[in-house]
C-alpha cells in the first residue's frame, strides 16, 4: 500500500505508521518522532546508512564493531572497507559477557 496518498486506505495506513513512530519515539525517549527511522528490515536500513556515509569515508577511517553484533550491522560497516575504512572487531569478554575497556587498548 502506498503511504501518503489521498485515498482512504492510504490515509489510514499512513496514520498507523506515524502512530507507531510516535510510540517508538516515546519508548526510546527521542525528543521528536521524526528522529525515528522505520523500515522493512535492519539489513536494508543499515545498507542505506552506510551507503550515505560512503562518500565521506577516507582511507584509514576506523569503524569499531563487536563480535556479537548482528550481521545486519556488521555487514554494512564491512562494506566500507572497500573505500579504505579499517573495520576493527572489539571482542566481548567471554567470562563477563561485557566489553572491557582494557580490551580496547589496541584501538
The termini sit apart by: 46 Å
| Overall geometric form | elongated
User: How many H/I helices?
Assistant: 3
Helix-strand category: mainly alpha
Low-confidence stretches: none
Name the beta content range.
5-15%
Mean of all residue-level pLDDT scores: 91
**Count of extended strands:** 2
Most strands sheet: 2 strands, parallel
- Whole-number radius of gyration? 19 Å
Helix-strand topology string = HHEHE
Order of strands across the main sheet: 1-2
**Percentage of residues assigned to helices:** 25-40%
Please provide a written account of the structure:
The structure is a single chain. Helix 3 links the parallel strand 1 and strand 2 (86-90). Helix 2 (42-53) packs parallel to helix 3. With 107 residues, the protein is mainly α. A two-stranded parallel sheet has the order 1-2. It has helices spanning 8-27, 42-53, 71-79, and strands at 62-66, 86-90. Helices cover 38% and strands 9% of the residues. The chain is built from three helices and two strands; from the N terminus they run H-H-E-H-E. The radius of gyration is 19 Å and the shape is elongated. 4% of the residues are buried.
Fold blueprint:
Layout: H1 8-27, H2 42-53, E1 62-66, H3 71-79, E2 86-90
Parallel strand pairs: 1-2
Amino acid at each position: 500500500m502506498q503511504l501518503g496518498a489521498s485515498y482512504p486506505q492510504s490515509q489510514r495506513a499512513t496514520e498507523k505508521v506515524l502512530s507507531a513512530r510516535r510510540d517508538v519515539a516515546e519508548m526510546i525517549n527521542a525528543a521528536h518522532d521524526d528522529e525515528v527511522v522505520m523500515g522493512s528490515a535492519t539489513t536494508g536500513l543499515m545498507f542505506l546508512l552506510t551507503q550515505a556515509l560512503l562518500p565521506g569515508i577516507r582511507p584509514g577511517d576506523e569503524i569499531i564493531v563487536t563480535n556479537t553484533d548482528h550481521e545486519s550491522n556488521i555487514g554494512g560497516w564491512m562494506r566500507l572497507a572497500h573505500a579504505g575504512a579499517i573495520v576493527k572487531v572489539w571482542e566481548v569478554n567471554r567470562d563477563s559477557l561485557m566489553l572491557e575497556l582494557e580490551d580496547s587498548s589496541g584501538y
